[in-house]
Amino acid sequence: MAGQGTRRRTASKAPAQEEQAGPRTCGPCRGTGKLLSGAGGTQHAVVCPWCEGTGTEIPDHDAQANPAERPD
Ligand SMILES: [Zn+2]
């Protein structure tokens, strides 16, 4: 590894998507509100814990606090 110094990131404008204040499509379920889960051996659809089935990203939402399925 040749030391070429530290690359500095130029402060650039954030992408337009970052500037949008409106609702954003939930990434994990891609806006469908459902996720496929393989829990239990059979793949089946569950309500997306990230958006709670709305398909829209919920700011500061903790999916781990309300998982779609809890292991018994
Ligand atoms: Zn979702």
UniProtKB/TrEMBL annotation:
Return the annotated region ranges for Disordered: 1-40, 52-72
What InterPro entries does the database record attribute to this sequence? Answer: HSP_DnaJ_Cys-rich_dom_sf
Domain of life, per UniProt, equals Bacteria
Q: Where is the composition biased (Basic residues)?
A: 1-11
**Skewed-composition ranges (Basic and acidic residues):** 58-72
Query: What is the protein's name according to its record?
Result: Molecular chaperone DnaJ
Q: What's the source species for this entry?
A: Patulibacter brassicae
Q: What is the lineage of its organism?
A: Bacteria, Bacillati, Actinomycetota, Thermoleophilia, Solirubrobacterales
